[in-house]
Amino acid sequence: MSPTHVLVLNSGSSSVKYQLLDMRDSSRLATGLVERIGEQTSRIKHTVAATGDTREQNGPIADHQAALKAVAEELAWDGLGLDSPELAAIGHRVVHGGMFFSEPTVIDDAVLTEIERLIPVAPLHNPANLTGIRTAMALRPDLPQVAVFDTAFHTTMPEQAARYAIDTKIADRHRIRRYGFHGTSHAYVSRETARLLGRAPEDVNVIVLHLGNGASASAVRGGRCVDTSMGLTPLEGLVMGTRSGDLDPAVIFHLERVGGMSMDEIDTLLNKRSGLFGLCGDNDMREIQRRIDEGDAQARLAFDIYIHRLKKYIGAYYAVLGRVDAIAFTAGVGENAAPVREAAVAGLEGLGLAVDGDLNAVRGDGPRLISPAGARVAVAVVPTDEELEIATQTYALVGKGS
Ligand code: AMP
User: pTM for this structure?
Assistant: First the structure.
């Protein structure tokens, strides 16, 4: 029988997240996380999905090679090591695929070179992704390894949505355009939303609101992305946990010329010390809600700014799509924070949008509708599953033929 397991690797600069799935029924076999790679206090936490048993090991893990070896050892404990005959492929999350990669791609030297060429537009993410890929390829050179790009779903955006209104020659020379991110999530959630409505993805227009620590919105027409809120980098768009989202670019000139800050300091300010955190000192929506309940005005204002921006994007994408069948909330905040969902559509009855208070308050794991019965536009909570999407795309590419 053909091998049916897919290992999904998400390699960050100091962490590796992994999941092993059996694609016969898309079930999880194991999940885990290696954290603080390169420090003395590294840690690997491994969970056997069937039993929920976890194993944890603390102690220095020097680099990604050591991290993947530790992952392989953990999997081998359960007879599922990297040498398992059941393993069909490894699927790698790659953040930036530029304009070149619109599909999941089997990795070879040319693909590695192209991912490397994109480092200037993804200086934090692509080097870490590459390290993970190279290490996994060294461990299993014979196994198909597939890159699944965060940007791929957005390559269908038309030029009027993808281009910034700057000098075209300069934009092209430096590959400056709107690429968008969280693509595997937007792809998965828009498709699951169609399924929830009992309709084919080709027939449905959806606004997906991926609200996690990073946050992005997308307008999906008939299963194809036509606009998304993140741009050249994940900094553009919605108010996020620590990122500012949209702002007048002149703020940057002002901070440099008048504020005396260096470009690196401004980069850190906008990516790591802005958004909800910059506004109120907290980036966790649970903490912000707790503070609002206690009457904290700063937390309230941060929430209101967050919601105001979200509403503007809902309105914008409504206009881009012309007809909207559903709005889907997903990721940590979107799936869990009922007050955010309620506030985001409050006052938008004119657009056919409303949430039912009781349905919105229900907690649950699966996709569910929270709009009132008979609503013109469905409002849904659709949990995202980026690992499953990466595994599905990887297996579709290599699994069945091997
Ligand atoms: P993610 O990036 O998708 O993992 O989302 C992480 C964020 O989700 C956290 O920073 C929290 O702000 C938010 N979050 C997680 N659980 C809850 C919850 N129960 N209520 C409100 N926000 C939550």
Answer: 0.94
